[in-house]
């Protein structure tokens, strides 16, 4: 019963990922996935939101292509969903962006498409600056938050909270992505930050525990509406010691009774199921014994289907994996 709830293709994320979507699905079948969630990035609406790789040959042309590309993605995803139904469950979703609050309206609109099963609520920017692109851009995000990493982390979790309140995603993506290019990605968020870090523009409660209080607030909110955190193994292939979310956050989530889903956040065939064994070991070390995904089932007494939550024991998850 192995699965991923987070994946991308080069076909619909050109320059950001590799490979055709159908080839990725065929590889997912080969490695033993029983479910794959397709979550290409949602369209963005402003030239300032484009990444450097998207500026050529023309930023305007790139921006204009994003909406039609999303439409093409949904059509291809539906085709593949039908074609491979006997071999794998294909869930159709998207990964949201929250570069500014105005994106909430677009996220909610995209989510109403009948083809969409769910979406991932993610934060890739703080103060409008990408925090996971590269180290220099991360440094620019730090400066935008007043010059301290503590202020950046506080602002990141504040923007995440605004996103959570506005769109309530079923899956919260890479909860602590802000750690990726940190000068100390393993630093404890729970035990406080050195006072020398400075407060910056993080908002109220700028003591050493300001970041952790925001983390707990956000977790409580997700738990309150029944959302899931993904255990995202991409952190491991990017050099971090632990998957997203890091242990102290994951422990707090478990303490709250929160549910985990699982994702490789693959950007092509080579990254499908990357570090899955390590990710499962990590979860089991936290006492987690089951993961959650979705399944579409026929309603009793009719032909209509409904999307239902499905528990997958980690033991069963491991058995279906066919990793070399």
Automatic annotation (TrEMBL):
Renumbered residue ranges of the record's region Disordered: 189-208
GO cellular component, one term: cytoplasm
Pathway connected to this protein: Amino-acid biosynthesis; L-histidine biosynthesis; L-histidine from 5-phospho-alpha-D-ribose 1-diphosphate: step 8/9
Domain of life (superkingdom): Eukaryota
Gene Ontology molecular functions: histidinol-phosphatase activity
Catalytic activity: L-histidinol phosphate + H2O = L-histidinol + phosphate
Positions of the PHP domain: 5-234
NCBIfam families according to UniProt: hisJ_fam (TIGR01856)
Protein name: Histidinol-phosphatase
